[in-house]
Amino acid sequence: MNTFVIVADAGRARIFKTETNLGNLTESEDFIHSESRLTNRELGADVPGRSPNQQGSLEPRTFPKEHEEQTFAKQLGKHLKEIHNKRHFDELILVASPKFLGMLRNELHAPLDKLVT
Fold first, then answer.
1. What is the structure's pLDDT at 21?
2. DSSP character at residue 10
3. How are beta strands 3-8 and 91-96 bridged, if at all?
4. CA distance 100 to 6
5. pTM for the full predicted model
6. Which of 10, 16, 60, 88 has the most beta carbons within 10 angstroms of its beta carbon?
7. Contact yes or no for 4/92 (Cβ under 8 A)
8. What does the alpha-carbon distance between residue 19 and residue 17 come to, in Å, rounded to a whole number?
9. How high is the pLDDT of residue 77?
10. What is the DSSP letter of 25?
11. Considering only CA atoms, which of 93, 70, 100, 108 is closest in space to residue 8?
12. Rounded to an integer, what distance in angstroms lies between the CA atom of residue 49 and that of residue 115?
């Protein structure tokens, strides 16, 4: 049984594979998304402004940092689909923080989602 283990956060993902048991993991790929490690200010966001009516503000719906995290989750989801299409695996184990795990699970296509344990 081919198993892939993804250990990820919003700025880095490491992909391990094994054909036997989880004691023999081999790192196959390492991705770094340095933009996710920057602050909103470093990504070009200013302090949110206030609107004239004290009810609302001009804050963006998604901050640049969160956008970069979502972008990385999309890239990783797409890459996992490509890996699955080329070198079929039977099981996928995801290890990530709850927030990033949710983002990543949203980017997994149906066949991959069924392989997650």
1. 74
2. S
3. parallel
4. 12
5. 0.76
6. 10
7. yes
8. 7
9. 94
10. -
11. 100
12. 45
pLDDT at residue 66, as a whole number: 85
Q: Both tokens of residue 29?
A: 């790929």
What is the rounded distance in angstroms from the CA atom of residue 20 to the CA atom of residue 104? 26
For the chain, what percentages of helix, strand and coil (3-state, to nearest 5) are there? 35, 25, 40
Residue 100 contacts residue 12 (beta carbons within 8 Å) = no
Instruction: Indicate if the alpha-carbon torsion angle 40, 42, 45, 47 is positive or negative.
Output: positive
Per-block mean pLDDT, blocks of 10 residues, the chain (117 long): 90 90 85 70 57 54 79 94 87 94 93 89
Give the pair of three-digit tokens for residue 96.
């990530």
How many Å apart are CA 108 and CA 89, to the nearest integer?
14
Which amino acid appears at position 10 of this protein? A
pLDDT (0 to 100) of residue 43: 57
Question: Distance between CA atoms of 58 and 61, rounded to whole angstroms?
Answer: 9
**Phi, psi at 83, each rounded to 5°:** -60, -45
